[in-house]
Design goal:
Blueprint: H1 5-11, H2 14-36, H3 40-59, H4 62-82, H5 84-94, H6 106-122, E1 127-131, E2 145-149, H7 153-159, E3 170-174, E4 177-183, H8 199-210, E5 214-218, E6 225-229, E7 232-236, H9 239-252, H10 267-292, E8 294-306, E9 313-316, E10 322-330, H11 331-336, E11 344-347, E12 354-359, E13 372-377, E14 380-396, E15 399-400, E16 407-415, E17 418-424, E18 435-437, E19 440-441, E20 449-453, E21 455-456, E22 462-463, E23 471-479, H12 493-500
Parallel strand pairs: 1-3, 8-11, 14-18, 15-19
Antiparallel strand pairs: 1-5, 2-4, 3-4, 5-6, 6-7, 8-10, 9-14, 10-13, 12-14, 14-17, 16-23, 17-22, 18-21, 20-23
Helix pairs in contact: 2-5, 2-10, 3-4, 3-10, 6-9
Amino acid sequence: MDISPSLLAVALSWRTLLDIILITTGMFFLLLTLARLGTWKIMAGIFLALVVFIGANLLHLQGIEWIYNNVSHVALIGLIVIFQPELRKVLERAVWAPPKLTPAGSEQLSRLVADCLVAMAKDCCGALIVYPGREPIGDKITGGFELNAEPSYPLILSLFDDSSPGHDGALIVEGDRLARFGVRLPMSTTTRLADSYGTRHHAAMGMAEQSDALVLVVSEERGQMAAFYESEMLPLEGQEAVCQLINAHLERIGQVRRKRKSRVFNKVHFLLVMISLFTATALSLSVLDTSRNIVERSVSAPVDYTQSTVDGSVLVGDRGTEVILHLSGPLTDMDELRQRPPHVNIDLSTLEEGRHSVVITSENLNLPKNITLLDVSPAQLDLTLAPMERKNLPITPQLIGKLPGGLKLKKVSVSPETVLVTMPKVKKGQGAFKILTTPIYLDSISADSSIFCGVAARPAIQPVSKSWPNVEVRVEVESVTPPKPEESRKPGAETALQHNSKPK
């Protein structure tokens, strides 16, 4: 893509820069969440799809663009459904309530927990302790027992003793209290951990994948300590390492006030920022480049007529119902016309009675701002307006076909018999206008029937009440008596005939 000075000037506008910053921020948090959850393959597939789309857009590959334009909406809904947990975590990270500050003595609690972990590791006693982060974990844990106790060395050891009812579960530490114990954590759904690790490790990884909590684990088989945070496993050696990790976590989530040390920016974070920035910049430049492409298209547009007042005039005779518009404008704006096709609006209230040639201009169209009207076919519409009058017209039933054999019409009545309409004035010698019902097929009638019909009338005839009434047609029939056969011979005639027919 050749970046012209004009495109570069537009790209450097504050709106474009703000757009790039917001897209980069959103993509970074989404990619970071996907990376934490171990869905790198899905993330790579999405990034590859974005690269293909941007490349096709820049190279104007119409086949790829057509596929994306027709599939992107469905794919977007599918991605929202598939990545609902990840998107939820991104939103939770964007908006969170500041945590309560832990009272003084947090270092003593950290050291107490570290002493307990070291002691349990020596005795090969399994343990699982969770320090929640900024994100709530209530919807991710199940079971357990309410504790809300002041921490102590004997209490923590007793909770993970084999005789304790909740020794296989996790202990939740909130602030300076032991909140719950025997809690079940979500299992990991990724392949980050080998199958050789036990249930505690997979549960700790599952919690670290789905939240920003810090999870401390003591292996019952190996007697080793480990920490899980942001989908990563960190082996721990000694009491001091455990204390530093807990204090750093509390400082990170804002539960303790301490002068923070400068943090070294993670290489993975830097890579994700670069990917997000590159994608956002390429996407913005692609959209800008596409918006600069001026194309011409022919679009069909229906003609809408705005009727005049009841006492004014009415449109009669032939009228145009559709025109072809030759338009020019940016490609993106032209594509929007597929969703919102233009209409030609003709206001009849500004015209007097008689014949008119209405020229179609851009004022008759609801075109977007950047679309230019080049030509119209036909360029004008020939219309005829006639004076209107109010009149009661009779409603005539439209009977089609014949009654079944042996039946004939006795009576046909219509309710209402007339309707008040506005219509063009009838000139001398001109046939009268009729109001007909919708067709009534007689071959389907075998007895007296009441049929509800609609009304069929010319477009120039409109009801004063703004809507046509429902018409009830009452059809009464009667049976036809077949005629008696005529007596072709008088009594005794047959005898006389036989007598005369005898041979002499």
